Structures are given as structure tokens and as C-alpha cells.
Amino acid sequence: MINEFKSFIARGNVVDMAVGIIIGAAFTAIVSSMVGDLINPIIALLTGGIDFSGWFYALNGESYPSLTAATEAGAPVFAIGNFVMAVINFLIIAFVVFMLVKMVNRIKEAAIKKEEAAPAAPAGPTELEILIEIRDALKKG
Fold this sequence. Notes:
Non-ribosomal Peptide Synthetase Peptidyl Carrier Protein, Chain A
């Protein structure tokens, strides 16, 4: 069983997947910062100063100045703003992954075309041609 596990781990797909997960986790921090620090202010500017991260409804009917105050008071809340930010994060990540896959596919297609366009090495003489040449040389000598 240990040998099977070693062979499973040694496969390229598993290692590639692990690298992808690690890069994806690091990429999440970049996207979160981009959404929080760049996109949210633009959306707030376009919507007249609405900050989605503070958009919530307290289900107990009381009014709270912020989402933090509501959660600290133990009120059940629908944190709609957090959901909107998660959707925006997802859309950005999906778009970037789409662009990366598109770029990788373009590079692969270019490599395949390059291989197809490369002239084939000239074929050497066949075995029959060599035997005929030897026969002819023996007849002369």
C-alpha cells in the first residue's frame, strides 16, 4: 500500500495539482486586495458612496450602526454585502483563470504548429536500397 501511495504521489498530475492549489491560495489574497482596495471604491463612487461590505439586514428587527455591531450583539443577520463581494471575487477569479487557460492553449497551439511546420529530417536509405547497393558493388568488384 505504501508503494502504491508513493507511485500515486510521484505522478505529475498530483504534483501539478498541488502546485495549482498553492498558487491559487496565494492568488486569492491578491484578488481579495484588488476587490477590497480597488474595485469597491470604484463601485462606491459609481453608486453614490454605497459600501457593499456594510450592507446587511438584522433579522431580529433592531437597527445596528454596522455589521460588526450587529454580530457582536449576537443578532442574526443577512450579510448581503459580504455575499456581493464574494460574487465579485468569484467573477474576477473566473475571468483571470479563463484568460490564463486561453493563454496556455494559445502557447500549446503555437508549439504544435511549430512542430508541424518543421521540415522532417530526410529519410535515410531503406534496408532494401542498401542491400541492392551492396549487391551492385559486389558485382563490380
